[in-house]
């Protein structure tokens, strides 16, 4: 009987201990949940603070940059080609020349960016491209126009890769595309705003002895010069040094970004120094080169389309002034679709399906443009310009975010993203020469080539998704076989950090 009582007492004590442990465990789990909720609320507050400072500023700068590179299309129908006695393919040559230095200098520019303050470097770029555009307004010959376009390409080459890279060092992988889309739709709105601005500036034709197209170049060149004088002071460089944030806020951002490896294990860094090893890693990654084919689907169509769409509309029987205004709804629609795709991509944590979906929309628009007899149905032709623009613009932020998500550490990302944008923008050389004036208003060559590039972009998206998926599966198997602790022991924390996207703990976005 005494033995039974002792046994019962022991069991009761064990039960009480288990209950106490369960209670402590439950309390600990509840406390951890509360701390996590508090940190998420704090993170959301700090990110809103960053959003209000960084994104509108970059969007404004990109709006100005895109207006300056594409306003040659507005200048064309404002009398530039007649005043400079241009004929044949001379206009296409002027458009193309911009992309030669633009594509060659983007990688060197991002290397410089990693070596100095981004705000200072971007201000230098803005000031010099504004001067190039301003001086172009004074040209009286075709040769002067070519010189202006060349130096515009030299000075503007580093801005876009610098701005997109800057976004990736502030936001986690599934936060960045929404911000990048807001930044990028500035390009869509640039088409709309440029048309409206050109329409107004064109009314100055003859004032002070300058033609309407010269006024377009002059006024749109002075804007970035003025902005450059203040941007170096107010544009934040990185989370570690942001003066508009408190120290705890800066620490929170740095900690969140370090944990963003895609697998819940390992860490990443944005504080690494750039060197030969990182530069070569960015240049030799075959997946970046594959992604440039997807990029061409955008640039071949967008640059040809942007420079030609006022002429396409004019060829349908509309006046020059009305053609400028009719471009506005097209770009506004493209901006709305781009934002919608970006939000959906971040929320579903997927990239490739939205790239494929976007280019599929563009394909439908191009097929319609080729099928519609022109200029017999101007309203229908104009209507199908909307899916062309939307389908070309909306995959772009998905692709840039996808590659940005897939490159680490930050030095390799700076080089890799610049390489993607550099080689990708070579599609602008093709796009600038496929919309031939002699084919107006049908532009059969331009629409057909753009259609083919969209199909090639979709095919390469499937290839890249397969490659990333396969690599993720192999790393999952490695971690399952060796275990997290063994991997850490084998490589060491410092080496895992510098391995970046080659780390067994890094996972690619699909």
UniProtKB/TrEMBL annotation:
Keywords carried by this UniProt record = Membrane, Transmembrane, Transmembrane helix, Transport
The Low complexity compositionally biased stretches are: 20-32
According to the UniProt entry, its GO molecular function terms are: transmembrane transporter activity
Location of the region described as Disordered in the Swiss-Prot/TrEMBL record: 1-34
- The answer on whether this UniProt entry bears the keyword Magnesium reads no
Membrane protein topology class: Multi-pass membrane protein
A GO cellular component term found in this entry reads:
membrane
Q: Show the Gene3D superfamilies listed in the entry.
A: MFS general substrate transporter like domains
Localization per record: Membrane
Residue spans of biased composition, Basic and acidic residues class: 1-19
Question: Which residue ranges traverse the bilayer?
Answer: 50-68, 88-107, 119-138, 150-170, 182-201, 213-235, 286-305, 325-342, 354-372, 384-403, 415-435, 447-468
Q: Which PROSITE patterns match?
A: MFS (PS50850)
Residue ranges constituting the Major facilitator superfamily (MFS) profile domain according to the UniProt record: 54-473
Predominant location category: membrane
Q: Which PANTHER family match?
A: NICOTINIC ACID TRANSPORTER TNA1, PUTATIVE (AFU_ORTHOLOGUE AFUA_3G03820)-RELATED, PERMEASE-RELATED
Q: What name does the UniProt record give this protein?
A: MFS general substrate transporter
Record the organism: Decorospora gaudefroyi
């Amino acid at each position: 009987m005494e033995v039974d009582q002792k046994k019962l007492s022991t069991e009761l004590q064990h039960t009480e201990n288990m209950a106490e442990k369960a209670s402590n465990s439950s309390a600990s789990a509840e406390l951890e949940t509360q701390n996590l909720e508090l940190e998420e609320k704090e993170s959301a507050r700090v990110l809103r603070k960053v959003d209000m400072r960084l994104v509108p500023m970059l969007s404004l700068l990109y709006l100005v940059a895109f207006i300056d590179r594409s306003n040659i299309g507005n200048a064309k129908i404002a009398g530039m080609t007649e005043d400079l006695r241009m004929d044949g393919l001379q206009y296409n040559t002027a458009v193309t020349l911009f992309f030669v230095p633009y594509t060659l200098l983007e990688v060197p520019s991002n290397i410089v960016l990693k070596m100095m303050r981004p705000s200072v470097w971007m201000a230098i770029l803005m000031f010099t491209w504004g001067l190039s555009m301003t001086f172009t307004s004074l040209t009286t010959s075709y040769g002067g126009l070519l010189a202006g376009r060349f130096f515009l390409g030299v000075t503007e080459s580093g801005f876009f890769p610098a701005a997109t890279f800057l976004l990736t060092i502030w936001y986690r992988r599934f936060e960045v595309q929404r911000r990048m889309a807001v930044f990028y739709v500035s390009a869509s709105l640039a088409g709309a705003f440029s048309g409206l601005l050109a329409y107004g500036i064109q009314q100055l034709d003859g004032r002070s002895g300058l033609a309407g197209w010269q006024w377009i170049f002059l006024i749109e060149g002075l804007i970035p010069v003025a902005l450059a004088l203040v941007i170096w002071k107010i544009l934040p460089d990185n989370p570690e040094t942001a003066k508009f944030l408190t120290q705890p806020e800066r620490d929170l951002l740095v900690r969140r970004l370090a944990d963003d490896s895609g697998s819940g294990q390992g860490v990443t860094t944005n504080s690494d120094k750039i060197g030969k090893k990182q530069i070569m890693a960015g240049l030799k990654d075959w997946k970046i080169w594959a992604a440039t084919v997807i990029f061409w689907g955008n640039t071949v169509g967008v640059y040809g389309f942007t420079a030609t769409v006022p002429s396409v509309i004019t060829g349908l029987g509309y006046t020059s002034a009305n053609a400028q205004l009719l471009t506005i709804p097209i770009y506004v629609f493209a901006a709305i679709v781009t934002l919608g795709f970006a939000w959906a991509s971040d929320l579903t944590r997927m990239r490739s399906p939205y790239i494929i979906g976007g280019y599929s929309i563009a394909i439908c628009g191009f097929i319609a443009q080729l099928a519609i007899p022109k200029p017999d149905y101007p309203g229908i032709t104009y209507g199908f310009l909307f899916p062309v623009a939307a389908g070309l613009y909306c995959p772009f932020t998905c692709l840039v975010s996808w590659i940005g998500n897939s490159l680490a550490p930050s030095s390799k990302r700076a080089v890799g993203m610049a390489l993607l944008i550099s080689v990708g923008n070579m599609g602008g050389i093709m796009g600038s020469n496929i919309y031939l004036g002699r084919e107006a208003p049908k532009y059969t060559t331009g629409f057909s080539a753009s259609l083919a590039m969209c199909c090639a972009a979709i095919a390469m998206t499937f290839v890249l998704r397969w490659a990333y998926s396969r690599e993720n599966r192999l790393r999952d198997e490695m971690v399952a076989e060796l275990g997290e602790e063994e991997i850490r022991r084998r490589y060491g924390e410092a080496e895992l950090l510098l391995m970046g996207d080659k780390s067994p703990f890094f996972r690619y976005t699909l």
